[in-house]
Amino acid sequence: MKQKLSKVLLLFLVVTILSFSTENPKKDYTGFTDANAKIQANWELRYDSLLKASDIDYFVKTLSAHPHHLGSAGDRANVQFILQKYKEWGFDARIDTFYALFPTPKTRVLEAVSPITYKAVLKEPALNEDKTSSQTSEQLPTYNCYSADGDVTAELVYVNQGVPDDYKELDKMGISVKGKIVIVRYGGSWRGIKPRLAQEHGAVGCIIYSDPKDDGYYEGDAYPKGPFRNEYGVQRGSIADIPLYPGDPLTPGYGDTKNAKRLERKDAKDLPKIPVLPISWHDAKPLLEAIIGRVVPDKWKGALPFTYHVGPGAVKVHLKLEFNWNIVPVYDVIAVMKGSEAPDQWVIRGNHQDAWVNGANDPISGQAAMLAEAKAMGTLFKEGMRPKRTIIFCSWDGEEEGLLGSTEWAETNERELTEKAVAYINSDSYGRGLLFTGSSHTLQNMINEVAGDVTDPETNISLKERRKAFDIVNAATVKEQSDILSSDILKSDPLGSGSDFSSFLQHLGIASIDVAFGGEDPGGEYHSIYDSYDMYSKFKDPNFTYGVVMAKTAGRMTLRLANADILPFNFNDMYKTVNDYTNDLVKKMDEMRASTDMTNQLLANKYFIYANDPTKTFIPPPQKDKIPFLDFSSLQNALIKFRTSADVYHRMLLSNQGLSASVEEHLNMLIYQSERKLLLSDGLPARNWYKHAIYAPGYYTGYGVKTLPGIREAIEGCRWAEAQQQITETAKVLDAYTAQLESAMELLTPHH
Fold it and tell me: What backbone torsions phi and psi does residue 333 show, to the nearest 5 degrees?
């Protein structure tokens, strides 16, 4: 209690100090001439005035009125509603249709067969307090999309969160999951990692449940009394292996148009080979309680009222799953506002609209905010604003199954997007509280400028300063607090996966931003029938205040990229970021080498003798392989060249006295296409769909990012030759990136 109280007081103090320091914040429009900055500022003020909480309320209520999963009647109805709204607001709108693999369950059986008997409910009950929860005939049942068909009976083993470290712990215990069914709790990684690791370790089935410690009464009151997951709530979700590639499993790397050539399902590398089923803690409780064997480590313990054991035994369970493996239409709604000066330069704004059930929060909250943006921009257009560049709004379908709509659209339109796409701005859903952004770091400065210009409605300081106050309070060390306080930059997170930016950034090299708000609203409704308008309007954003803030933030980003004279990409920020990642890897190598040397020294001196049985002859374990030297010099030299060019480029921009229209258009093309230079020609090792040398989802983290992924994951896997090769390849990419920047600098020299 004392710790929580001190944080609250510290946060109040920091917010108060920052509010005095930002009474007259600097309004900075990087990339705009002084005259055009004033015009842009006026349009943004008018834009803000057009955003209405009542509109967002209406969109959330309308679009979440019925379940609308991929291929459903509700999905088709929502697509038509969105299409007509875009047209009403003056956009040239259309539906782009694709055809993707989408399995739905026809048989789901989970039962304990010995020494206890229990048949799982596998159902979320309707609640009087939640009107749409009773729409049973329209709801998808609880399941994991892309699970294999299967009929298995085996002993149960509890493997905590089912991440790599948990299997290492099992190895220490001498426990194998081979031939067993694992039960694993949500958390610790993206859900698809759990069955993949279970499969790799020989398990024949996987059950994933929501433990109340992570997502239920341990955290607070359960729904409908509070916003946390109740005992029957289940998290649906896809388990296709997104770290290999997103999109339709049967068309990796190319669009799943109607007549596209498709893989046989058995040949799709991202589909699991074992049956997988999500369950509630109500159904998990009797199974976990019946497991015997070793008591679990402390960090594995959940909040159910019994002692957790690892197993295997005594309980044996029967898991049977069968699916309808259908190809269904995927409907992307594409709405275009053509640019007046550079129509072939595209600023793309996207949010998906499909849900597992009603999806008021995920994704309709984000979709509603984006529709409010489009409505306001349509009004601006009617009032005379003409964006310089083309603005494209995209309401994606099929995101929940594995980014289907956005991936298939990006793969189908790869050539044109590579030529024309300036940037992609993504959202998924929004909550209440703090601004969270991930991005290409060339766009970090623009994000800071927008975050400094939008006011947080709860504190009346800027979004930037509120988030900065939060970061200061939650910093791990005094030095970290001091660094944040002294810096004027709110750092943007690197992007992994899990939402529709992935194809644009990591496959096509299009600079991207992901925008979200949250921190004050728990996610106990996630992927359940209780993600409803009743829940959202009571617990998430009751007055739809943050929907307006979301629309202000993402809309300003879109408008600035669409209207800037010279695109506001900051290459100094990219240099600092990549340099930090490189230094981190060099440090990691030093630490690994020191740890291995120390371990080998202890082994050599027999310090690993255990005192519990001194009569036994000591047989030392084998020494660890020495960590070799990796030569980072090519990457470090590439960074030095990049730093010099980035610094000169920004100095030249500051002294620029104006460019002709043709030179300006060419300069902007070089700027936005620079991100393409960060793509590895052969992609990442073993998963070449992912091509970006700086950002990728981790192979064993799923949504979680790995920076400098080719190098980092080779080091983590002790694949030293591969690591050295990836250092060389990343250096080449950075050299090409610098050359592109130098071409842009040529256009800024006086003879132009």
Answer: -95, 120
Helix (H) / strand (E) element for 732: namely helix 720-748
DSSP 18-64: HHHHTSS-----TTS-HHHHHHHHHHHHHHHHH--HHHHHHHHHHHT
CATH architecture classification, 572-748: Up-down Bundle (1.20)
Interatomic CA distance for residues 693 and 683, integer angstroms? 8
> Do 668 and 342 touch, CB atoms closer than 8 A?
yes
User: pLDDT per residue over 266-281, tens digit each?
Assistant: 999 999 999 999 999 9
> pLDDT of 9-57, one tens digit each?
344 344 443 443 433 334 589 999 999 999 999 999 999 999 999 999 9
Q: Using omega within 30 degrees of 0 as the cis cutoff, is the peptide bond preceding 275 cis?
A: no
Cis peptide bond upstream of 212, omega within 30: no
Instruction: Please give the radius of gyration of the chain, using alpha carbons only, rounded to the nearest integer.
Output: 27
Alpha-helical (H) ranges within 226-290 are: 281-290
Does residue 618 register a pLDDT over 80? no
**Candidates 3.40.50.2000, 3.40.50.1370, 3.50.30.30, 3.20.20.80; correct CATH number of 101-325?**
3.50.30.30
Provide the token pair at 703: 């949504």
Tokens for 278, please give them.
Answer: 């999500």
- What global pTM score does this model have? 0.93
Q: Give residue-wise pLDDT tens across range 458-492.
A: 999 999 999 999 999 998 898 889 888 888 899 99
CATH superfamily membership of 2-100+328-459+492-520+533-568:
Zn peptidases (3.40.630.10)
Look over the chain and give the mean of its residue pLDDT values, rounded to a whole number.
92
pLDDT digits (tens, 9 = 90+) for 221-237: 999 999 999 999 999 99
Closest CA to 421 of 392, 442, 441: 392
